[in-house]
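ping. complex inputs:
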Amino acid sequence: MALSSATAPVRSAELRRHNLGLLLGQLRRAPSSRAVLAATTGLTRATVASLLDPLVAAGVLAQGPPSRGGIGRPGRPLWFAPTGPVVVGVSVEVDGLVACVAGLDGGVVHRMQRHRDHAGMEAAEVFGRAARDVRALCARVGRPVVGAGVAVPAPVRGTGPDAELLRAPNLPLLAGARPAELFGRVADRPVLVGNEATLGALAHLGVASDFVYVSAGIGIGGGIVAGGRVLPGAAGLAGEIGHVVIERDGRSCGCGGTGCVEQYAALPALLADAGAGTAAELRVAVRAGEPAALAALGRAGAALGTALTSVLHVVDLPVVVLGGSYTPLGDRLAGLVRDEITRRRPSAAVEVLVSGHGRPAAALGTARAVTDRVLAEPDLLLTAPHTP
Amino acid sequence: MALSSATAPVRSAELRRHNLGLLLGQLRRAPSSRAVLAATTGLTRATVASLLDPLVAAGVLAQGPPSRGGIGRPGRPLWFAPTGPVVVGVSVEVDGLVACVAGLDGGVVHRMQRHRDHAGMEAAEVFGRAARDVRALCARVGRPVVGAGVAVPAPVRGTGPDAELLRAPNLPLLAGARPAELFGRVADRPVLVGNEATLGALAHLGVASDFVYVSAGIGIGGGIVAGGRVLPGAAGLAGEIGHVVIERDGRSCGCGGTGCVEQYAALPALLADAGAGTAAELRVAVRAGEPAALAALGRAGAALGTALTSVLHVVDLPVVVLGGSYTPLGDRLAGLVRDEITRRRPSAAVEVLVSGHGRPAAALGTARAVTDRVLAEPDLLLTAPHTP
DNA sequence: CGAGTTCGTATGGTCGATGAACAAATGCTA
DNA sequence: TAGCATTTGTTCATCGACCATACGAACTCG
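pong. complex structure:
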């Protein structure tokens, strides 16, 4: 079933859009000649050419030199032009801003990290300054920007222009803010808005396309990725893995419940349990093999594994990716989590991986979400993209 | 985005299929004239006619009498012909077989309940006898059958012709069986196979299109329905709500874990806790207001609510539907569950409903899944359907 | 009974994908 | 080095699906 059963009719124009998006999605994975694209997608060579030639003419795609070696006329690989359009992913964090500029193939063109204490700032200032920084960054890159997105460390209702930030435990002044309005338009479109963990999940599509992403910090967030797409939930609040209950009468949590995992396995609990002051301190202690640190890590891993067992029983995915503050502890923690999950759910194998991105995951995943949106509506690439 | 980003190209033929499926999906909800269909779907009246006329000619759709009352020429409503094709949904249960024959609009044409002790039977006999019963049922209905599906009380890997039944706690001899092969083809296609709770969820699409379905019995199963579709998971094992953990060191469960909800809230635990022998006995005691029964129900409701809190934090859906053995206890239980969920997760409202179907839910939902498959490939309706 | 309105159908036009044919570019072979 | 096979990229005629328009049909209202 290649067509979704949405309530909208499908005209021929959307057919073209779909096939063009299909080709671009293929090109994102690897540069290929028209003939190879035709073979892998099932379209005709003629169709591939008629779909992609306008993008080549517009400078979005570039043609490489003929490939050498094979028999027959060599194909000319197509790829995203190194001067072509880019997208921007921004992550607003408690103590700073992370942004990255990426080509449509996901290649990062530019990174930016700026320390900034957002704790006491009003929402308008937070997103206004972020927008100014991003615009300056875009100007410096000198390539057309076709979209941008913002990740925030709080649950977000919706992803569109009226996306609303709900309770923000660590940045209370942001509660109720509408980042898309405060940020302003980029490339004449509202910016995409989403939760830091939900969007961060997408940064890991390279290692799997069906997985549960867990992002630890002061709390624990996450994203459910199935078939390469994030499960949005009814109001965009899916993936709140930190509030999965592991002990019905356990420690009370800021969410109103009791026994939520994040009271056992998020960074504050882990540090307190290990008697460490900072994550770096804990990491050193773990590397040194200090028993107290190892025991605390074991308890956190078991707690997290218990919660993930519940999650996997519900969504049944074969991979778990640990990210955020877990990244530096990852090697050892992943094993602990995997052991707990397989102990509790022996019926299905699970692989527990550690994020290869660490802190920039949210910005990278946001960029990925934006390119997904752009590739789903490739017409944007033809209407003379302009810098903001 | 009306087109999914599947890896398949889209030809014009699939465009037609999609729009035809869209129209039939609309007709399934309510009979409508061509003009109304055009208005609601966004297609042209001409397109609607050219899509549906072949089905009218084939006897799949029928034209009603002109509607009276409005101004202008009255439209002639189209609906699924009362002699048109049907689908069959079968539920293999521990102690019997439930089957229903439904029209493509979901209207049940015929029901069958047969008591049969499947406990000691080999898989080949179980599904062979079910197939014979179903074929006899089909012959008696006298309408062309265009598809069939089988629900089983066990986790199932996959839904296609090679769907494999995993561990079946209550019917151990079925473990490893491939029902589609044993059942044989219906309408020249393999039967659809799925878990009883996963498919049963679909029977409730009338009351919501985004919800968590919970089906209680000896264990607790479930289905996550988002956007009118069941979340399948990587191997078809999603929705095992019974094994969500509510007490990390709680009662041990047959799945290998400890503290799974179904050890607290499934029928056996509930009956033992209440000191009742059967579900009917418990129901009487609850209605009579016996304190022991009410207390036990309260404990089960709290346990279930705790597990559902975890589930909702992960998938974020606005509705929970309680079914299976919960149906007769529903009115009171639903309130208990809702209270526990809102107590633990006050940030989002949730509605807890009771299934209106009870035991036949699995068969009904299976029929629904089959019609979904048929409407997604409406060409099946034109190739002279034949009875098996 | 005529005007106004809406429904269903017929027709020409547009757009996208296909399939076949053809020119271009390379490796292989004599 | 020339000729052949093979593969690539492009061109062109055709088909299929939908749309816009126009027109007859059927009904209500004044």
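Residues 9-12, 15, 33-35, 45-46, 48-50, 66, 70-76 of chain B lie near DNA strand C (CB under 10 Å from a C1').
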